[in-house]
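User: 4-hydroxy-2-oxoglutarate aldolase, mitochondrial. Structure?
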Amino acid sequence: MLGPRVLSSVRQGLSRGLSRNVGVRTSGEGRKVDIAGIYPPVTTPFTATAEVDYGKLEENLRKLGTFPFRGFVVQGSNGEFPFLTSSDRLEVVSRVRQAMPKDKLLLAGSGCESTQATVEMTVSMAQVGADAAMVVTPCYYRGHMNSAALIHHYTKVADLSPIPVVLYTVPANTGLDLPVDAVVTLSQHPNIIGIKDSGGDVTRIGLMIHKTRRQDFQVLAGSAGFLLASYAVGGVGGVCALANVLGAQVCQLERLCLTGQWEDAQKLQHRLIEPNTAVTRRFGIPGLKKTMDWFGYYGGPCRAPLQELSPDEEEALRMDFTNNGWL
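Assistant: Predicted structure:
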C-alpha cells in the first residue's frame, strides 16, 4: 500500500505531467511514444571536490546537441545515479531539460529499490521535465526478483506514472536479467513503451521483439557493440555510451542500418567494437570519462568509490581507439 505522502505526490505529478505538452504523448490514433533512435547516456560531471558540476554538464550538452540524436538518457548507469542523492538526481534532470534542444526526448532514470520509492522518484522526474522514465530492475534482493515480483513492480510504477515507462535491464550491474516472459506481459501495459536491454544477448533481443510484435512496444540496444545486430533483428535504436565520444559515428551506423547499407554498416560496426568494450565492460565509467576528455568534452573525475584509471589502463584505453582509427 502506498502511503498518503506518496499518493499526494502522485496526484500532483499526474496533474503536472498530463498538462505538459512535450509532444511525446500518445497520438489521436492511440500509438505510444516513438522512442526509435540513438541516445547518449549522459555522464554526471563532478568537480575536484565531488560536487556536481552543472556548468560542465551544460557545456557537454551543447556539444552533444549538434548530433542527430533522438534524445538523451539521464541518470542511467553512466550517470552514476547510485552515487547521487535524490535531490542531485532531480536537479541534474532539471538542468538537462533546460539545456537540451527542445525537439529531443529526455529519458530519465527513476529506478529505486522499492516500488514506493520508484513511484515517488518517477513522479518527481516528470515534474522536473522528463518525457519518459527509464526504470532499472530492483536487484538488492535479486533472489526474490522473479517474474511475478518484477511484473507487480513495473505494473504499479506504470499505473501511477504520469509519463511513459521504459523498462531497463542491465545484468552486468544488477546481476539480474528481466525475464522475457515478464517483458512480454509488461509490453501489454498501455503506459510501458519499450525496453533498454544492455545484456548483449541478440538471441534474447530477437525473441523479445518477436513475442511483443503485436504490441506497440520498442526495443533499444543498450550498447553500441551490438547495435547493428539489434537492428538486424528488429530493434529500433540504442542507448550507447560510445555516443558520448563518437556521436557522429554511432548515428552514421544507425543511418546505414536503416537504409539497408549492411556492408558499410558491418565495416563501421567492426571498428566500434573495441572502443565500445573499452568504455563499457573493460574500463567502465572511468574509461568513458577519460575518453571524453580526449574528444573535447568534460569527463573529469568519478565519485568515490569509483577510481581513476591507472597509467597502464589509460594507455590500453587509448590503444583501443587508436588501433581502430579514432585517435
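Residues 47 and 53 are 6 Å apart (CA to CA). The domain at 37-272 is CATH 3.20.20.70 (TIM Barrel).
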